[in-house]
Amino acid sequence: MISLDKKDRGGYVGVIFQWKYRKCMCFLGLIMGLFMLAACEKNLLAEPIPYLTQERELQKKLPSGDSNVEEFVLPIQVNNGDFYTVSGWLDDHTLLYISELSHGSNVYAYDLTVGSSKLLYESNHPIISLEISPSKEYFLVHSSPASNKANIAFVNNQGEELFSKEIVSAEIEFRWNQFNKDSVLVTSFKEDWTFNTFLVNISDGSLTQVEIPQPFAYWIDESSLVYLDWDEDAPSLFASLELFNIREGSRKKILPNLFQVDSFGEHFLTISVQEENQEKATYTFYSDSLEEIYSFTIPHLSRFSDWLIPYYDYLPNKDTFITFQPLYYTEADIYEDGFQLALHNVKSNEEFVLLEGMQNEPISCSPNGELCLYGYYFEKLLNLETKEIIPIVTT
What we know:
mainly beta; 4-stranded antiparallel beta sheet
């Protein structure tokens, strides 16, 4: 299989893999003679982003639930095998985590309030990744029985395996349908980066191949997806956003010159770079009817052939986007001044900085938006109300 180190195989396989795929496509284009290099200028003297509200305003806007880090029973005691990663939230106080064994992997549910682990699923093969459905009713387990094969098991939240499928692949990308709990888009890649896309129906266990022009597509309603239409024959930093109807097979260009896209149920996000000022990234949110509802601009960090996209998450019940953001524009490999953790409310257009001096690492927040998993293995717990960060496991 394509080699991924343990850091890559945590909760953010998709983000990292898209970056690798995009870089590979650009490299292949360069081999064919189409050379492009983005000029990046250092600007070490740029001013940091100021606080967007005063501390008293911050406290008024933060979640006001009853959660308290001190009430949780942590760290997790892993008694069978070695801790591999926390995979995500099953509910507001229950985590799923994976332990590695000599002969395979186990999946456990851990209740933060009582400190108990419950074995949910056993795999005879090493688990590569685990993805929890938006409804929290299911999770899928991607394991590797052989170097060129992937096994995908679909499991309910009680640990019962509903069915499994084996696909010839070097790597797999998943996209749950937020509008249909029984629908999952699965894209399998071969070693040469060619891909096949399938639609899985959990209710009947079927897997149907579908023809989608690009491998990384995002649901914006039950039958429509958006994706960036990259041209592998002409490497570029930007691509047009296309709308694709999976039932009709129709496609339509809707937005030009974008760098990244993502979706969060009723909203989807685009990231672009201003042509007149490439030192900043513009994040724009749209409704599922393609209406712009909110936008903000922050500095970003350049890399050799693109820009770093800091980790982020979306809190749907708070209508809030949470993201890391650098203080100023410069090159990513020399930036050492930490990141702000900022919250942006897409409905009220309010935004404020929660924490300073943070490391840019994966983040995933609980369904009620009060707690976040943090770190490359989601090995830390961040309380958004108290701002405390404590370890979930000990090393």
